[in-house]
Amino acid sequence: MSDYTIKILLNYARENDCSDIHITSTQAPTFRRLGQLFVGPFLATREDSRSLILSLLNEAQREDLTLGNDLDFAFEDTDGLRYRVNVYRQRGELASAIRVLRNDIPTLTSLMLPDVIRSLAEEPSGIVLVTGPTGSGKSTTLAAMIDYINTSRKVHIITIEDPIEYSHSNKNCLVHQRELHRDVSSFANALRSAMREDPDVILVGEMRDFETISAAVTAAETGHLVFSTLHTTGAAQTLDRIVDVYPSQSQDMIRAQLAGVLRGVITQTLVPLADGTSRVVATEILIGTDAVLNLIREGKYHQLATTMQSSGAAGMHTLAADLARLVSQGRITANVALCAVSNRSELEQYLELNG
């Protein structure tokens, strides 16, 4: 049996600025730092790995695991530090992925996000989407936006999360945080209930199905400011994903609804700094201007990139433009930028313009 505990693994991850821990029967505990995996200095047998994972679970979770279900929950250690945990099976053995969460909520300024994101948080109603791949910092950006509202406005905020990642205390706002499977059965049910709970701002952890998307759009139409996420990599893909969830005969309707409520789409990715010490966020910003909303209404998503390129005064830019900015500032390398963008030709044009 190993002579270390789950607490030692968690401390090691924090001390070494790791974002994730993987515990599996086939390898010693593995850590992710700056987007890259490495095997930590801990030996573990199959039984060690199983014991480490089970030490995270309460009795109800262990019983749920025996029924063959995967588990997704938040965990707080003895120091009050929080983690997001997923427990699953592979090849008949237990495995776990643990996301290290920050206890402090970063500010929009400390994250060096564009000023227009602050303006989106000041909107009285509508829908704001934060998109990007897994591990791109979407939850952190949303937490910073909610904290900005909590500090600057006097409203009622309801969050619906799976699980709760950042804990918000009441500042100038009243904040209620609801966790899936503990406080509510589904995102859609929680959204429908929220309409009777006098909210001003609603955060939906993820718009993952038709019922949730429909309820979120309805909430925005009825005068609420709604934030949510999707696992998409650009504004056009985001809108395509939402519309495609609807049956073909309803797609004109949802396009019209989106054109009435969309305030902005923030797409982001994390890229390593040139000196290798950390990562920085690169963004693509789409703002719901009249021109953008007309394109959405008409389903002309392929024209959105051109609109973003020519609408810098409105706070818009493409991911390629933002990556080129980071290269020109010497913060990231051109090779890193090229690996992070889908439209390489656009990025190369920006790099040539910037010399």
Please describe what this structure looks like.
- The chain is of the alpha/beta class and 355 residues long.
- The chain folds into 2 domains: 6-100, Beta-Lactamase (2-Layer Sandwich), CATH 3.30.450.90; 115-317, P-loop containing nucleotide triphosphate hydrolases (Rossmann fold, 3-Layer(aba) Sandwich), CATH 3.40.50.
- The chain has helices at 6-15, 46-54, 59-66, 115-121, 138-152, 187-194, 210-221, 235-244, 251-261, 290-297, 304-309, 319-328, 334-340, 344-353, and strands at residues 20-24, 27-33, 36-39, 71-76, 82-90, 93-100, 126-131, 156-161, 174-179, 201-204, 225-230, 262-272, 279-287.
- The strands form 2 sheets. It has a 7-stranded mixed sheet, with helices on both faces.
- Helix 9 (251-261) runs antiparallel to helix 10.
- The radius of gyration is 21 Å and the shape is globular.
